[in-house]
Structures are given as C-alpha cells and as structure tokens.
Amino acid sequence: MATAPVSHADSHGHGHHAPGFIEKYLWSTDHKMIAMQYLFTGMAMGLIGGFFAYAFRMQIAFPGIDVPGFGVVSPNEYNHLITNHGAIMIFWVAMPVLIAAFGNYLIPLMVGCDDMVFPKLNRLSYQIFLVSALILIASFFVPGGGFAGAWTMYPPLSAKPEYGLTPLGSTLFLVAVALEFVAFLMGGINFVTTAMNSRAPGMRMYDIPVVVWMIVIASILFMASVGPLIAGAIMLLLDQNLGTAFFNPDKGGDPILWQHLFWFFGHPEVYVVLLPTVGIVAEIITVMSRKKLFAYRTVLYTAFGTGVLSFMVWAHHQFIAGIDPRMANIFTITTLLISIPIAEMMFVYIATLYGGSITLNTPMLWALAFIAEFLIGGVTGIFLGASGADIYLHDTYFVLAHFHYTFFPIAIIGTFAGLSFWFPKMFGRMMNDTLGKIHFWGTIIPFNCIFIPLFVLGAAGEHRRIFDYSMFSELARPELRHLDQFATVSLLVMLSFQLVFFYNLITSLLWGPKAEKNPWQSNTLEWSADSPPPHGNWPKLPTVYRGPYEYSTPGRDQDYWPQNAPN
Predict the structure, then answer these.
(1) Higher pLDDT residue, 15 or 280?
(2) What architecture is the 357-527 domain classified under in CATH?
(3) Can you state the angle between helices 362-385 and 255-289, rounded to 10 degrees?
C-alpha cells in the first residue's frame, strides 16, 4: 500500500488561533465542535421521540386515558405520534449521532489530521440539519398538527394530505426530510474525502481503524441509495401541492411505485446506521479484551459485501403488496443471503473476545449487549424475510418487535457504547462507572420486557398501528391485552432510568475526575491527543508505524502498542 498523502494542515499551510465565543460555539468549523452540535441536537430530538413513544404507548395500553404531560390522545394525534416517533428516531437521532457526531469527531483524530478536508462545508451541513429539525418541530404546531401518514409516507395517505387532516404538516415533513438528506450528503462527501486523502504519514489503508471504515462505507451507501427517494419526495410534493398523479391511483398513479422508491433507500438505510455501531463495538471489544481484532480484513470485506447486498433486498417489505411471486422468491433468497456477512461480523467479534482479558466496564457492557440484542433482531428477521411466513406476520407486532431488536441496539445501545467509551477524550473527564452500570441494566432489562411480549402478540396475529384495540377486536387478542400493558409499564421504567444517564452526564461534565490522555490504554491515534484535544488536535501531526489493534503483542512489556509509537 502506498503511503498516505501529506496532512491537511501541511497541504494547506495554515496554523490555528484561539477562537472567540461566537466563532467557537456558533460559527465553528472545528470538526469536534460540529460533532458536539450534532450529538446534543440528536439527544434533544431523542427526548422528543421518546416522549412521543410514551404518549402513544399509554394510549395503546390504556385507551382513552388522560396521558400525564400530554392529555387525551385523539385518533389523528395517535397517527401523528407514531409517524414522528419513527421519523425522529431514524433521521434525527440515529443518523446525526452515529454518523455525523461520531464521524465528525473521530475521523480526523483517528486518521491523524487536524480537521475535515472541507470545514466550511462541514459547518453548513450541520446548519442545514438544524434547520430541518426546526422545520419538523414547527410542523407539530401548524393547523391540523404534524404529518400523520406513517414514517414510510405511503400514498395515498401522504399523496392526499386531507386524508391525514394535516395538509401543511405533510408538506413541512417532506421538506424537513429532504433538507436532512442534503445535510448528510454534504457530510458524507467530507467523511469519505477526509479518510481517503488526509491520513497521517505512514497510515496505509489497512491501518485505518474499523470504525472509520464503517462510517465511510455507511456514507457511500447513503449517497448511493438516497437519490431515488429524493426524486420520489419531489414527486410526492407535487402530488400534494400541484395536483399531479405520480402516486394517486384516482388519476392513474401507482402507490406501489413509492414503495419501491422508498425501500430502495430504506433498507440500505438500516445498514447506514448499523455499520457505524458495528465499528464502535469493534473498537471497544479490542480495547476491553486486550486482544487484536480477529480477522480485520474479513470485517472490512464483509462490510463492503453487506453494502452491496443491501441494494438487493428492498422488496421483502412488499411481499403482500401484489408483487410477482417469482420476484418474491428472489428477494427471499437475497434477504437470507445478507444475514451471512452480518453473522460473520458477529462471529469475528465473539472470536476476538475468546480468551481475552475482559474488563466489564460500562462501555464493554454496552458492546456485549449490542451483540446479544442484535442477534435476536437478526434471527427474527429471517422469519420476515421468508415470503410465506411474512404473509402472516406482516403488519403485526412481530414486525415491530423485530425492527426494535435491530434498531434499538443500533441507535440507542450504539450511542451509549460510543459515548461512554470516548467521553474522556471528548470532554476531558471520566464518567461515573457505577452510575453507568445502573443505567445500563435499567435500560437493557426493561427493553427486553417491552419487546419480547410484542413478539408473542405479533405471532398471535395482533395488528400494529391500531388506535384503540377495543374498537377492532378482530385485529387483536383480548385475552392478551395484559401483555400490551406490561410492555407499556416496562417502557415507563426504561424511560425513568434515562434520568440516571443524564444525571451522570451532567455531573461528569462538571465534576468528573480529570481524564488522562489515554485512560483505556488504547492504540488508535485519537488517544495520543490531549483530553479534550485542542484546536488542530496535535501540536505536530502524528506518524503511523503499525495497525490499530496491536494488543498483547509477545515480547512487549506493555499490552498495548500505539499506532504512533516508533517501537
């Protein structure tokens, strides 16, 4: 492999000065500050999405109740809550935190440069993202309320806004999603360019940490898949506001066309947010088991393979939409095939753990929980990937449970794992490990208590997205209503334990013990910078001599070997 190009700082020949308050916090081009902006914006949106989940779950479990903090949930408000809960958690929580926040913070530090290649473009991407979030929030308060046609935006509910009783809310929702996509297209260009062209001297391609590779591959996936959906969103806007008929069957349009456009993006989107979490887990388990990552190249190649296969599975969401049964057979095969590279990654991680000197601190607990919970999501996905079984299970709570057993480990567990691991580097202080473990168990146990009952309800045939099951007894099992109530109470318990996290976060930021440069004794370059890193990251950019996972190397006194250590 050829040696990487010269550093960003050297190539541009600029130094760094201490920024003022406005320049630092409001108009910053520093990748670390932009990462913080994405992180805290995503966390704020997560609070909104969590509140929405609380409100509609209370309505499902206790129909007609006056929900504390919300009031009585009307049918249209119910649709609004479930629609925006899904959209917020995917587009305004998972993507900004896992890709934008961790990508912005880690890529320059882990590849050994001073900033992103396009710092002003980086700033603009966050500003557009923030505008998209504000537009989405504004849509909640327009006449009729926010969009209520499900986060998948299926026509005709979305093509005819009057069906959802929210004409303006529907349009604002689409505009917000479109702007969010623009922001992440800008970010993706930055991530790929920086990782490929601004690596430290001596850093070969196979010396790049897995988490950087995963964010780069995820960015490429997003950029390659989002085009058809942007085109579809424009057509949907025209249907809503100008009376066109791309998706309106009353005028000859085809609502199934939207499903193809949406899921061609929607299923790669799962892997767009999955891969960064897979990378985060790789970094944690190598450090906390003091072992070299087993089969680094295998993880890398399977990530690329997953990305390619993710474009060939979208129609498994449409098995009951009337597609040709022969095509259903093809998509059943491709869906089952994509489980192979993901399973291979999980086995590699288990092999890495085997025989290691494992430290069960908070980051490691989150990493292990990801492997366990995601495997449940993967196994249950095999049932839905088989067209015969999906005919029965489609649109039941089984789908809901499967989705959350994939997406919760990705978005929530991945976020907590990454934040607890890199918190010392980001903020220069250590989090309280005891409080971290209390938060971990207070999240993981209730999570399983929420969604295991939903597998049972779904297998029994209970349909999802029903406002009041007492009004549609044929779509529910009255004798199993207690499971819905148990799941809702479990959600309340899980949400209450998030207070422990925020208490730990705030107190650690203010009064936590000062962190060393390298508190975990890790090898990757970010740990050679000060905690927190200054503007420009290092006084002199590092040189790389080896790969990122040289732990417990025979013949060395120390069980770690930093990438920038000459010997």
Answers:
(1) 280
(2) Up-down Bundle (1.20)
(3) 150
Distance, in Å, from the CA atom of 410 to the CA atom of 226, rounded to the nearest integer, reads 20
For residues 525 and 512, give the distance between their C-alpha atoms in angstroms, rounded to a whole number.
Answer: 24
Length of the chain: 567
The angle formed by the CA atoms of residues 162, 167 and 169, to the nearest 5 degrees, is: 135
Looking up tokens 């920086």, which residue turns up? 194
Only one residue has tokens 């092999």, namely 351
Q: In sequence order, what DSSP letters do the residues of 265-322 get, joined into one string?
A: HHHHHHHHHHHHHHHHHHHHHHHHHT-PPTTHHHHHHHHHHHHHHGGG-GGGGGTTTT
pTM equals 0.93
Q: In terms of Cα–Cα distance, which of 143, 102, 140 is closest to 414? A: 102
How distant is the alpha carbon of residue 218 from its chain centre? 11
CA-wise closest residue to 416 among 352, 364, 349, 343: 364
Angle between helices 397-407 and 255-289 (to 10 degrees): 40
> How far is 537 from 113, CA to CA, in rounded Å?
8
In SS3 terms, 173-196 reads as HHHHHHHHHHHHHHHHHHHHHHHH
Which among 407, 438, 446, 403 has a CA at the least distance from the CA of 420?
A: 438
Q: Angle 153-413-102 (CA atoms, 0-180°, nearest 5)?
A: 85
Euclidean distance between CA atoms 222 and 91, whole angstroms: 12
Cα Rg of the chain (Å, integer): 24
Which amino acid is located at 63 in the chain?
A: P
Q: How many helices (H) and strands (E) does the chain have?
A: 18, 2
Q: What is the DSSP letter of 149?
A: S
Distance, CA of 270 to CA of 414 (rounded, Å): 13
Alpha carbons 520 and 527: distance in angstroms, whole number:
9
CA distance 205 to 199: 9
Nearest in space to 211 (alpha carbons), one of 191, 186, 197, 226: 191
φ, ψ of residue 28 in degrees (nearest 5):
-75, 145
> What is the C-alpha separation between 195 and 202, in angstroms, rounded?
14
Phi, psi of 67 (to 5 degrees): -70, 120
Flag whether pLDDT at 16 surpasses 80. Answer: no
**3-state secondary structure at position 429:** strand
**3 pLDDT exceeds 50?**
no
User: Residue 532 — left, alpha, or beta (φ > 0 → left; ψ -120 to 50 → alpha)?
Assistant: beta
Which pLDDT tens digit goes with each residue over 404-454? Answer: 999 999 999 999 999 999 999 999 999 999 999 999 999 999 999 999 999
Q: pLDDT band at 20, cuts 50/70/90?
A: low
CA angle 314, 146, 242 (to 5 degrees): 75
Q: Which two structure tokens, joined as six digits, stand for 373?
A: 């919970």
Q: What is the DSSP string of 129-141?
A: HHHHHHHHHHHTT
- Strand partners of residue 66: 72
Region class of 201: left (phi > 0), else alpha (psi between -120 and 50), else beta: beta
pLDDT at 470: 84
Side-chain-side CA neighbours of residue 153 (13 Å): 31
For residue 440, give both structure tokens: 């971990």
